[in-house]
Amino acid sequence: MPWVNSDKAIYLYIGLAGFIGANLRFMISVLTYSSDYFFPTGTLLCNYIGCFALGWFSQYIGTSQLSLKMKTAISTGLIGSFTTFSAFSVETISLLQDGKMFIAFIYIMISFIGGSLFAWIGYKIGRVFI
Predict the structure, then answer these.
(1) How many structural domains does the chain have?
(2) I want to staple 17 with a disulfide (CB 3.0 to 4.6 A). Which of 50, 78, 109, 113 is the partner?
């Protein structure tokens, strides 16, 4: 298959990896859904996992034998579609509109602090593999 090695194949790799990441994110949302919506647990969990994974992967790719296409597919396609800033933003606005100011503030803070912490942990663990 000659197209697999073409320069445009990267779009296919990103799309396929994005398909996987988006479906994994959806599965986590379904598994963490609660009918008495109190807190956007699914999005927070996906973002934490994604921050850790991208932190780790950013260290790992430097020593990896993976092709540039695969590195981009994993970082941009898989991890990029798995995490979501847009859902975080909409859920925060929804909490604010529902009058849940304190919950919205907590969500913003733990998303930022926790996401940064998980990215840092992933980065540090990734350095162990170098």
Answers:
(1) 1
(2) 78
Tokens representing residue 24 in the block: 């994994």
Burial class (CB in 10 A: 0-12, 13-18, 19+), 77: buried
Judge whether 124 lies within some domain. yes
| Contact of 17 with 69, CB cutoff 8 Å | no
Residue 2, in any domain of the structure: no
Q: How far apart are CA 47 and CA 44, in angstroms?
A: 5
What does pLDDT average to in each consecutive run of 10 residues of the chain (130 residues)?
A: 70 96 95 82 95 92 83 94 93 95 97 97 88
Length of the chain equals: 130
Predicted pLDDT of residue 2: 55
Q: Does some domain include residue 56? A: yes
Q: What does the alpha-carbon distance between residue 52 and residue 3 come to, in Å, rounded to a whole number? A: 33
> Which tokens in the block code for residue 3?
């197209």
Structural domain including 49 reads 7-32+41-128
Query: Which tokens belong to 19?
Result: 């398909």
